[in-house]
Amino acid sequence: MEESKGEVKHILLVKFKDGLSEQQIYEYIKEYANLVNLVPSMKAFRWGKDVSIENMHQGFTHIFESTFESTQGIAEYVSHPDHVVFANKLLPLFEKAIVVDFEPTKVLV
Fold it and tell me: Among this protein's residues, is 26 annotated catalytic?
């Protein structure tokens, strides 16, 4: 397999704490999505809710995907003041979370 050029994905899986309404969660997600307008190294943002029928989600309910051009871009994002302020507001709302960064590959046929 060949590594894709100029793209690194930052994946966050989350289970929010009980007591938050869907509307409250959505408002935080809108703030998260706005980081793409504030953090130059963040190129794209997508999110969704678990819809798996395999029941292997281990309680994680929301998935967030951010795209960067490099691992250096992720480092810039993590330390960016707007991300730091947002993360300090969002992290206490998580019952659990996991982060994975990866470089997508392209299957050669």
Answer: no
